[in-house]
Amino acid sequence: MENYISKCLDSLIVPSIDKLDIIVVNDGSKDRSSEIAHSYANKFPNSIRVIDKENGNYGSCINAALPTLKGKYVKILDADDTFDSNNLEKFIRKITKINIDCIITNYKEINSRGWTIKKINYNFLTQNKEFNLDNINLITYINKIAMHAITYNSSIFINKNYIQTEKISYTDTEWIWLPMSWCKTYIYIPYYIYNYLLGRPGQTVNFEIDRRNINHHIIRFERQISYLYNRSKDLKENINVYKNKFLEISLLIYIYRLYKRYLIQEKDSSTEALINFDKKNYIFINYLEKNYNIIFENDKEYLNKLNLWRQGSYNNSLLFKKNIFHKVKNYIKKFLISI
After folding, report:
1. What would the pLDDT profile of 256-290 be if each residue is shown by its tens digit?
2. Spatial separation of the C-alpha atoms in residues 3 and 319, rounded to whole Å
3. How far is CA 121 from CA 42, 104, 144, 175, in A?
4. Residue 294, phi-psi category: left (phi > 0), alpha (psi -120 to 50), beta (remainder)
5. How far apart are CA 324 and CA 94, in angstroms?
């Protein structure tokens, strides 16, 4: 990250930096990332501090930083990404005047030249108005929200033993799963805060890297399934029914997306891993599919194809072939924008 971290930290140097507690977690890097981070901490000792630790992947960085929080709110920024400095300044001024558990903001996908590829907003939510998760349709829509859009009130982590999975990638979805269910109040503030860089070499969202790491997804899913499936009776009786639905729907959407991503491939090691995962957890996943088929209302063929796949009719069939066209179309669109 030595080629990115300066730009990342520069985006945080705003007029209200004295109101920020910036925690840079160096995850055992072997390049100059730590040196660069410490140089910023020396310039802004009241606002920037560095935690140097052994490599443990994404979740371990969250676990290292959370116990040290000083700020009222907490938001994650990956080292290769940036914040929009002007909107960050506006955001800081606004949130100092409110007390909300979860704040949702917009973000942009950008390329290596800093050009905007796509703007992501959440205009299905009412702007600047507090709300609760007390509606099944709202829960379904809110599951479109990515990690880049979320800011939490630090108080939701008090007396909670939140540990994000370590040693694997793709645990950013955990950040918008269990902590979000702890929130009682939510608000949508339509500022574009986060700039999410796409196309960096070695990025974990790259399809080939993602496919090699299929077991990272499976480990995460099985941990989430275990949490939902094995909670004590006492906890189930006391949890808010809508929060429980939020957790179940979120997990189903994550699994649904992964199935669609991998089942367009012919039989290989990644689909074999997915087959084994599905067989092991079929009862619970089937329960989710039956109870929340609202997820598939815009993809009516999905469950039929999934049933064929479960019956073993997946060899050379490219069941989700139609998605390849859309992936190629979007790739070409992004490529044209990048040049």
Report:
1. 988 887 765 545 667 788 889 999 999 999 999 99
2. 40
3. 36, 10, 10, 19
4. alpha
5. 43
